[in-house]
């Protein structure tokens, strides 16, 4: 049985928000990559990926996240991830995978959407 990935898009406070649910793996990660590229092609360079409802992420999914970071940095954009860290929350899996691979530090991580879209950019404050 194939598990689908659902990606929905909204805008919030000048940020494009993609909410991702399901499994982010070799089969489903191209869909997220397509959606990210569509957002950037529309001229949106401030992106929040809400990964709270991603219950599984493999190396393909991590690759898409890293590629998204690289893409947005190349156009001087910003990427923020919503990754809950509490045990038992589905999205906590992605948080643990990124930490185990030593790449979590590459991302601007927030616990919820409200924080992600309102917290000032540290580069702009400095």
Describe, in plain words, how this protein is organized in 3D.
With 126 residues, the chain is α/β, with parallel strands linked by helices. The protein is 39% helix and 30% strand. It contains 5 helices and 5 strands. The protein has helices spanning 29-41, 59-74, 92-101, 113-118, 122-125, and strands spanning 5-12, 15-24, 46-57, 78-82, 108-110. A 5-stranded mixed β-sheet has the order 1-2-3-4-5, sandwiched between helices. Strand 1 and strand 2 (15-24) form a beta hairpin. Helix 1 (29-41) runs parallel beside helix 2. The longest helix has 16 residues, at 59-74. The protein starts with a strand and ends with a helix. The model has no long low-confidence stretch (mean pLDDT 89).
Task: Output the keywords.
126 residues; alpha/beta; five-stranded mixed sheet; 30% strand; globular
Give a quick rundown of the structure.
This protein has 126 residues and is α/β, with parallel strands linked by helices. A five-stranded mixed beta sheet has the order 1-2-3-4-5, with helices on both faces.
Structural class: alpha/beta
Strand content: 25-35%
Helices and strands, in order, run as: EEHEHEHEHH
- What's the overall average pLDDT, rounded? 89
Terminal CA distance reads 49 Å
Measured as a percent range, the helix fraction is 25-40%
Number of E-type strands:
5
Low-confidence stretches: none
List the quaternary state of the chains. Answer: single chain
Query: Nearest-angstrom radius of gyration?
Result: 14 Å
Largest sheet: 5 strands, mixed
| Strand order, sheet with most strands | 1-2-3-4-5
Q: What is the overall silhouette? A: globular
Number of helices: 5
